[in-house]
Automatic annotation (TrEMBL):
Residues 288-351 form the TRAM domain. Keywords: Iron, Iron-sulfur, Metal-binding, S-adenosyl-L-methionine. InterPro entries: Aldolase_TIM (IPR013785), Elp3/MiaA/NifB-like_rSAM (IPR006638), MJ0103-like (IPR040088), Radical_SAM_PqqE_MftC-like (IPR050377), rSAM (IPR007197), rSAM_sf (IPR058240), TRAM_dom (IPR002792). PANTHER family: MOLYBDENUM COFACTOR BIOSYNTHESIS PROTEIN A-RELATED, RADICAL SAM DOMAIN PROTEIN. It comes from Hyperthermus butylicus (strain DSM 5456 / JCM 9403 / PLM1-5). GO terms for molecular function: catalytic activity; iron-sulfur cluster binding; metal ion binding. Residues 40-269 form the Radical SAM core domain. Pfam families: Radical_SAM. This is Fe-S oxidoreductase. It comes from the Archaea.
Amino acid sequence: MREVVEALGLRLWGRVWGRPVYLVTEPLPLIGVIQFGVIDRGTNVLQVRPTTICPLSCIFCSVDAGPRSRWRQAEYIVEPEWLAGWVHKVAVEKGVHVEALIDGVGDPFAYPWLPRLVKLLKETGVVRSVAAETHGETLTKELIGKLEEAGLDRVNLSIESLNPEKARKLAGTPWYDVRRVIELAEYIARETSIDLHVTPVWLPGINDDDIVEIVKWAYRIGAGKKWPPVTIQKYIRHRYGRHPPGVREIPWNKFWEKMKRLEEELGVRLTWSMDEWGMRYAPRVRHPIRAGQRVKLVVAGPGWLRGEKLAVTMDRQRLVTIVAAKGLEPGDIVLARIIRDKDGIFIAKVV
Ligand code: SF4
């Protein structure tokens, strides 16, 4: 079984919090699932996902990451050369230069080869800028230096409170030290060529005042050298996410009203056009499969959530997640129906 999995491009790399970590390599395709690889949502921005791992367990985490995950059964890290190669392939097929946003269902700064990935992306010739998201816990001056040298253009920093005690509670992690994150964020903004974009998640009823403090802080320290300085993220309840007690999800119109009110009260901007982000619509990459279709798939290994399997199309061009996949083993060839296809992320059920 191990040989089958490795031949498909999944290698058991270690374990974290009792879960296996798989190294994803050639020839496993890197488009088709949410947890790693490349996601094209029809713009010039490509989401680039190198790892699912995150050291924190934020109590509002929409993707149930970290040590306290309840739904995950496996974690992944992707070999950087293979990932950059897929970004190149997708951009060429789209026919545009792209902005690479390194994000994911984990914290990209927990990826051991982040500077290397940034450098490889810049070397593809099709990537105009590279940004990476983080909650900042694994930031160090040394890592920031390496990322600057590799050509990282922007850090998108999520921070939900500047108060150490509250930040620890929100991060679900007793050792989380927001003072260190603040210090390093200020260092990025003031002493490097990397831009800082601050992206707090607003948890209505929990961090309303903290959000105001964070916005003022972001503007004060000089975030937004080239891109907008701050964007407030809306809390959205996801089925497999974590839901802090007492926090309701508010409708989008109420959210935008709140943003407008805050902009007036604070005299700063919090909402931005696509243009200000240098973002525009671009042709989508064409997929060889679509919703409703029956396809033959090879089971490659475990999916990221319990009950799921990671599978690959027979032509090795797309990844597919098989749900309700009990009893399937790596190497099995199954006939499945694609039951969901959104932005080239495929979910299938065996028929
Ligand atoms: S919200 Fe981000 S930093 Fe927090 S647990 Fe989830 S992935 Fe990790």
